[in-house]
Amino acid sequence: MTHFMLKEIHEQPDVIRHLLDRPISISFENVDRINILACGTSLHAGLIGQFLFEQVAKIPTQIRSSSEALFAPLIETANTVTIALTQSGETADTISALQIVQSKRIAITNGIDSTITSKLITQFIQMQEKKGALLQQKHSQRSW
Description:
Elements: H1 4-21, E1 33-38, H2 40-55, E2 61-65, H3 66-69, E3 80-86, H4 92-100, E4 104-109, H5 115-120, E5 123-126, H6 134-138
Parallel strand pairs: 1-2, 1-3, 3-4, 4-5
């Protein structure tokens, strides 16, 4: 396998197994609503999260592009959790949107020492030990 994308495709089952085997100490027990903020490919991953939270956990979930959330704030209750999805932890729109969020905040990111994890979030989940998420970005290179 000489192509990096092909290598990442073949690594996906192992990466998913590794992520599912890790303990996550976040409780959704009293949560009555989940909001997801993301941009680009992370927004598409958030749609999968929305489906799982609503269909499996039966928690109403709203997903919004971080840039749109700046002008159309998300509905929040006392028991809302807002999840920010960002590969780098430095996505400007997601950082700005999180600054106006009042609910509990969780970030899912590769950027362990990023702006989001150091300034805006009380809990975060690091998705990869190494940075190499080229596969998610490659599909957008296609011209229509």
